[in-house]
Amino acid sequence: MDRGALVLGVVSIVSAVFVFVHGTFQLVQIGAAGLVVALVLGLLAVVAGWLDERALMLGAGAGFLIAAAVQLVLLAGGRSGFLGGNASTFSLWLGLGVGLVAVGLAAVPEATEESLEATN
Amino acid sequence: MIVLAGTDYVAGTDYATRAVPLLPSRVNRAVIAIVRVGVGLLWLQNAGWKTPPDFGRGDPPDGLYLSTTYAVSHQVFGPYAWLVDRLVLPNFAFFGWMVLLVEASLGAFLLIGLATRFWAVVGMAQTVVIMLSILNAPHEWYWAYVLMLLAHMALFATAAGRYGGLDGLLRPSWQGSRSRFARLLVRVS
Fold first, then answer.
1. What is the mean pLDDT of residues B159-174?
2. What are the tens digits of pLDDT across the range B100-152?
3. N or C: which end of chain B has fewer CB within 10 A?
């Protein structure tokens, strides 16, 4: 199990709650299509973390980065577009994408002789 | 020096034979993680009102453009006001995008705790820029920005991404790598 990917996926799923939150405490703007992105890619990241499957982590991370880039392009046109997000949505998906790619690319560290000695 | 995977223990010199955690208390580590996530959410939420393509440049002005004009109309520091008046406001589309990208990245990276010490420094710099713009603006409480600055200093000093963040998870693999990028990540995490 990879805790990093698992937590990032859970964060994405939890962010779906902001479909229903408006006003002062709306940390991120999630529209209908954004909800699909948050749930599908979030679930993919959770499964990737649960199975410790690096390719799935990279896939979910790439998905978030593409969604972030599309949202940014839509914002450049002066509107939220079909994803229904704003720059906060871009920020969240950028973080989740970069995080999942970083976790997916990370080599699993081998225990060194020194660290084993220190542990014992 | 010995750094244990998944923790933040430092030891192994001639003078220190016992491993000592940088933040020994679990409560302290949790609190620092909460502070980091909170500061990340601050940037993340406030990226939302930076609205391209004009960033509030209109009649009447609002949003980021209006905030930036306070650097001139309610001057804090003369040379900065001059720079904003002569360089930033006439080229506001470019600077608006820079602000959006920097603040969205601050939200993204502080939230996940990746390269946290680097982004804490960026956060300090961006906070100073904001202070130079709006510290004398009406209805602003200057301590809010001082607190922002202090929070980023705390994130830097405690290397906050190592506690509940990706820096803590990934540093062991970066430390085991010989690539220059991995060594850079060790330094900024």
1. 96
2. 999 999 999 999 999 999 999 999 999 999 999 999 999 999 999 999 999 99
3. N
* Contacts B108 to A, Cβ<8 Å: 91-92, 94-95, 98
Cα–Cα dist A16/A12, whole Å: 7
Q: Could you tell me the two tokens for A48?
A: 């990737």
Q: Test A95 with B169 for CB contact under 8 angstroms.
A: no
Measured in angstroms, the CA of A40 and the nearest CA of chain B are apart by: 20
Q: Are B155 and B123 in contact (CB under 8 A)?
A: yes
N residues, chain A: 120
By the 8 A CB rule, do B52 and B114 touch?
A: no
What pTM does this model have?
Answer: 0.89
User: Rg (Cα) of chain A, in Å, rounded?
Assistant: 17
Q: Is the peptide bond before B60 cis (omega within 30 degrees of 0)?
A: yes
Please give the full DSSP string across A16-62, using - where no structure is assigned: GGGGS--STT--S---HHHHHHHHHHHHHHHHHHHHT-HHHHHHHHH
Which residues are registered as beta bridge partners of B21? B9
Residue B127 and residue B148: Cα distance in Å, rounded? 7
Residues B39-78 have pLDDT tens digits of: 999 999 999 999 999 999 999 999 999 999 999 999 999 9
